[in-house]
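Lecture 7 notes: from sequence to structure.
We start with the chain below.
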Amino acid sequence: MHRTSCTAPLRNQAILMEGLLERILIDHPGPDALHSIYWGRIAPDFVGCTDMSLRLTLAAGQSTSWDRRNGKPFKGHPNHFVAKIAEQQHIHSEMADLFKRYGMQLKVSDVEKVLVVKVAALPCYPVLKSCGVRAGDKLPFDCQLWFAVHPAGEVAASPRR
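Predicted structure tokens for the same chain:
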């Protein structure tokens, strides 16, 4: 389980988390030692736009499957959409790279409690605007995130739901 209100860039968090990952693997050797990680919210307590939050919002804003006016996917549940696009766009790339160095794959497996807002309210709106996102677009910016951990080379299941 990971829960933080850290606003450091994800690459810096990955550096810090490497020591934790090493300790887990020492204390619990074997292929079944680590199979899932609950990341928690990707924009905790709305402290600003974290790397994953910004990437998610941009990905949704560029997707033809997201209804920016109504703030939901054209088809299906927002949780399913966010899990799928988060994995496709690899919003967690720094963490995935860390796990890859240890012979593991890190994949988005599920999300809960997707939060949607008009992007003009986000502190990172200037960045979003420079990427073509409009102030009135209603886009996801936060969710509770789950990762599945698999040995490298193992075919990982797609996000549930």
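Points to note: The chain has a mean pLDDT of 87. The radius of gyration is 16 Å.
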